[in-house]
Amino acid sequence: MEKYSIEVQNLTKKFGTFTAVDDISFNVKEGEILGFLGPNGAGKTTTIKVLCGLLIPTKGDVFVENYDIRKDVEKIKTIIGYMSQKFSLYTDLTVYENIKFYAGIYGVDREEAKIKEIIEMLDIEEYKNTITAELPAGIRQRVALATAFIHSPKILFLDEPTAGVDPVLRRKFWAIIKKWAQQGTTILVTTHYMDEAENCNRIALINQGKLVDIGEIDEIKGKFIKGNILCVELSENYVKEFNTLKKIEMPVKDISLHGSIVHIIQDIDIEEAKKKIKDYCKTKEIKYKNIFEDKPSLEDIFINLIRKKS
Amino acid sequence: MLNFQRIYALFKKEFVEIVRDKRSLVIVFIMPIVMILIYGYAVTFDIKNIDIGIIDRDNSSLSRGYINKIVSSGYFIPYKDAYNNMDENIKALRRERIKVIIVIPYDFTANLKKGKDVQIQCIVDGSIANTAIIGVGYLQVLTSNFANNIKMDFVKSKGINSKKFPYISPEIRVWYNQELRSTNFIVPGLISTIMMLVAALLTSLTIVRERENGTYEEIMSTPVTSAELIIGKLTPYIIIGLIDVLLVTLFGVLWFHVPFRGNIITLLFFSFLFILCALGMGMLMSSIAKKQEEAIMMTFFSALLPSILLSGFVFPVESMPKAIQVFSYFVPARYFLNVLRAIFLKQDVTILMLYKEALFLIAVSIFFLVVASKVIKKRKL
Asked: CB within 8 A of A304, min separation 6: which ones?
């Protein structure tokens, strides 16, 4: 039998009459990276807060490393790390002081060695004695990560850990997360950067408090998008041209704009569809740079999902 | 069980934050000094040099003797520009140039000679009630003194040995504050106000600030318990509070020459209890309020104002309406003020003698700290 780090059964969390999390069940395996995907207000953060023991569930059961969240929340708190949305740090303290504070709170053994190790691992040595208020977001994020991981928790909860951080640093960040997962840390991460979700072993799609689906990325892609995706790369006037392209007469399942690239999801033969689109563009004088086939991305799934709901 | 390592981590962090935060430093060290200077100089309940308008319609040696008595007392300064001019005096009263007008009637000497009663008219500006009441009091004493002298002279003139004539006069001895200097009781009162301000205000900010920064959420996801959080966060403020007590006491004694007759251990013991109360109140505000501004306002109205207005610092508790007196039992400053005045002005005051005050302060601080810890526990976020 597989060992689960987190078991959630029929979890519901209400705030007054508002149901933030509605009857969610899922398990997370040890050493797995599970991505929580969903629009703002879908209930991702609320779910994480319940799992961290910050909120008490209204209904349902939650077990973290086999501890019951209602009975052993204090024990759970010693084996988890939590990084909240805002990279919350003590802004008057230096990087080192922030990390040392959490080391003290968690009662970390060989404190100084551990602090040194994590500072090196996250490559923030040059900022060690800088007051945190003066740091750019990317560095603050890594310091926040250091404070959440200083006690080598079994489970790490990351709530939108990369919001506002530039792509290069985001990649670095994920490299570290993946390394920790390989070493056995279970990671539960929320994001609304679709490209980031590709780093997860499994993803859970959440919308309006409900768990829409959970599984491996390819599996979910196959389930949600039947057909193929044709991408049309447009030139400068892409918004206007996209609106014209929308009126094309062919059985389109979904059409959406991603930057200057239009994703068209449809069923008919690829070559035939390509020809149709090319002809249409010619008659409507749409200037395109390129037409190519692509695998559906999570973003396609996501847009598809939201459309279906509304 | 409390984990002292966690408490120590919290303590150290909080301390560094206070020291690095300029606003906190101003509240801790500058504000007490400024307050004691302002209060020490400006707020004086001693009333001297009351401007008085005089209308002497009699203009005799006797009436001049009476006026002389009043003026030479040192409490009144005659307004000479309007001497004997009723209209000008009334104008002056209206313009707040003078506070009192006395009118000596035409028949002052004549009636006295005949042995008849005489009335002096005394018009007082009641818009500043405190000055008016004290001024009238002085006038009454001076007048009855003057009247007594006349009686004694009369008795003597009749050839009766004045020593046989019964004459009762109080011989007043003031204990503890011989000169009745108001700075001597303002400075102790100020200590309680400053303590309340520093302790309650600073702590009222500590948890809200963490909530605003989002660090509170992170702290709550760690194994720290609410008791550890409170102890760890409060200890730095207790130390700062005690330093402030010593600072203000030193300033009062050296600068304003307020006597300090009790002992420093008693002072520190009670200051510790009072600071606990103030911190408990601040902590409670902090755990209820959502924003720092809200916490400041709440602390101001529920902790600071009562400790100035209802503690007996400005208005004696005995002269308050009964309902408010009952309310004042719940104001810790009321007890601390008693203790402070006793420690400063009376000798040989021990902790045991003030056990009632001590018990009350302990009860109040436990009450606030327990409620605060319950609120923190319940309101996780």
From this structure: A224, A225, A254, A265
Q: Which of A52, A85, A101 sits opposite B221 (nearest CB)?
A: A52
> Which chain A residue has the Cα nearest residue B216?
A88
Q: Which of B13, B24, B377 to mutate to test the interface with A (most CBs of A within 10 A)?
A: B13
Q: Which of A140, A89, A83, A146 is nearest to A120 (CA)?
A: A146
Which chain A residue is nearest to residue B214, measuring alpha carbons?
Answer: A88
Give the whole-angstrom CA distance, residue A273 versus residue A260.
20
Yes or no: say if B231 and B370 are a contact pair by the CB < 8 Å rule. Answer: no
User: Do the chains contact at A107 and B21, CB–CB below 8 Å?
Assistant: no
Query: Between A86, A105, A131, which is nearest B214 by CB?
Result: A86
Compute the nearest-CA separation of B37 from chain A (Å). 32
pLDDT in tens, A190-231: 987 777 888 899 999 888 888 988 988 878 777 766 677 888
User: Hey, where are the domains in chain A?
Assistant: 4-215, 226-309
- ipTM greater than 0.90, yes or no? no
Q: Which residues of B touch A (CB under 8 A)?
A: 3, 5-6, 8-10, 12-13, 16-17, 20-21, 213-215, 217-225, 380-381
Among B3, B223, B380, the residue with its CB nearest the CB of A55 is: B380
Q: Which CATH class is domain B50-164?
A: alpha beta
Q: What is the pLDDT of residues B201-232, one digit of tens each?
A: 888 888 888 888 889 888 989 999 888 988 99
CATH pick for A4-215 out of 3.30.1300.10, 3.40.50.300, 3.40.50.2300, 1.20.1560.10: 3.40.50.300
Q: How far are the Cα atoms of A123, A248, A254, A281, B70 from residue A241, in angstroms, in the given order?
A: 46, 11, 16, 9, 100
- In angstroms, what CA-CA distances link A124 with A96, A100, A118, B92, B286? 10, 14, 9, 76, 34
Distance CA A40, CA A100 (A): 33
DSSP A91-151: TTSBHHHHHHHHHHHHT-SSHHHHHHHHHHHTT-GGGTTSBGGGS-HHHHHHHHHHHHHTT
- Residues in B closer than 8 angstroms to A103, CB to CB, are 9
Q: What is the pLDDT of residues A67-104, one digit of tens each?
A: 999 999 989 999 999 998 887 899 999 999 999 999 99
**Chain B within 8 Å of A109 (Cβ-Cβ)?**
no
Question: Does the domain spanning A226-309 belong to CATH 3.30.1490.20?
Answer: no
**Burial category of B99 from C-beta neighbours within 10 Å (exposed 0-12, middle 13-18, buried 19 and up):** buried
